[in-house]
Structure formats: C-alpha cells, structure tokens
Amino acid sequence: MPATAPASVRNAPHVGRALRAADVTRAEDGELHLSGAECSDCGTRIFPGAPVCPSCNGERMKPLPLGSSGTLYACSTVHVAPAAWQVPYVIGYVDLPEGVRVFGKIAGTDGVAAGLAPDITVRVHVEEAAVSDANPADASPAAPTYHYWFAPA
Q1: 2 has a pLDDT exceeding 50
Q2: What is the CA 42 to chain-centroid distance, rounded?
Q3: Could you tell me the residue ranges of all domains in the chain?
Q4: Pick from 17, 148, 123: which is nearest to 70 by CA?
Q5: DSSP codes, 67-109
Q6: Considering the entire predicted model, what is its pTM?
C-alpha cells in the first residue's frame, strides 16, 4: 500500500500549474491575468513567454497580455496519476482570443469531463500561490509564484 502524502501535497495538483511572476500581469482593477509573449519578427504568440521565438529563433519577444476567458478545444479526465495526486481530475486545452492555446487543469467539474464539450466558454483563473504551494527552489519574497486553472463560464 503506498504511503499517503500530507493533505497539502495531495491537493496541490488541483490548484493549477505554477507560474513565474513574468507569466502574470495585473489589470488596473487588480485582477490577475496570464501574460504570454509575441515575436516582433514573425508574429508568433506563445504561452508561457520565452526569450527566444520557437518559430523563427528571433530574440525580439514582447509581453502579450492574455484574456480572462477562452474556448475549450479539448479535455480529458485523468484517472491514474502519481500517488500524491487526487484523482480523477480534468485537464484540457483552451484557445484564447489572442491566438494562444493553453493547457491546464479544469476545475468545477467534480473530477469528470461529463458536461464539458469543445467550443464551450471557460474562464481563466489566476491567483498568487501560498508559500507552501510554491516550489521552494523558485519561491522567494521578491519573486511570488502564481497558479492558473480554467473553469466553465
């Protein structure tokens, strides 16, 4: 029988992927949004951002604020995962209006993809990670980390 991980570890996958501060922007109203990058040479848009364009190898990348909602492209229910993760959970790809397809967790589904279908609208949720949720190698008082996930709108 596998050892049971502490509750904080078992829940960690459900809070969404950890992001660097550079992958998030704050709107004037205080709401957090994802931030990708756009290549000034060829126009390729990516998330998360990177210093070099994956399409043309250009190094003139500029920040690209991403919207707060998108369209579900595809999703799947995961039933088998590392022992510390709670299963089932739902993952999927979401197309954002800026032309970026983002992969992530889909919350608010009780762990099953029933009721989800391509082309439904989903909302992007971004929040600052609690210190215990952050990767100790990445966390410092000067560099907060964030999580994001999707939920049906």
Answers
A1: no
A2: 25
A3: 7-152
A4: 123
A5: -SEEEEEEEEEE----TTS-S-EEEEEEE-TTS-EEEEEE-SS
A6: 0.80
Q: Whose CA is closest to 148, among 21, 15, 13?
A: 15
φ, ψ at 32 (rounded to 5°): -85, 140
User: Which amino acid, one-letter code, is at 56?
Assistant: C
Q: CA 18 to CA 111: how far, in whole Å?
A: 20
**pLDDT, tens only, 68-119:** 999 999 999 989 988 888 888 899 999 999 999 999 999 877 767 778 999 9
pLDDT digits over 35-74, tens only?
A: 999 999 999 999 999 999 999 999 999 999 999 999 999 9
Count of residues making up the chain: 153
Reported in sequence order, the residue ranges of the chain that DSSP labels E, i.e. its strands, are: 17-19, 24-26, 32-39, 45-46, 61-65, 69-78, 89-95, 101-106, 121-128, 146-152
Under 8 Å CB-to-CB from 143, ≥6 apart: which residues? 20, 21
- Between CA 123 and CA 114 the distance in angstroms is 18
Q: In Å, how far from its chain's centre is CA 130?
A: 16
**CA–CA separation, 76 vs 54, rounded Å?**
27
DSSP SS3 for 22: helix
- Residues β-bridged to residue 60: none
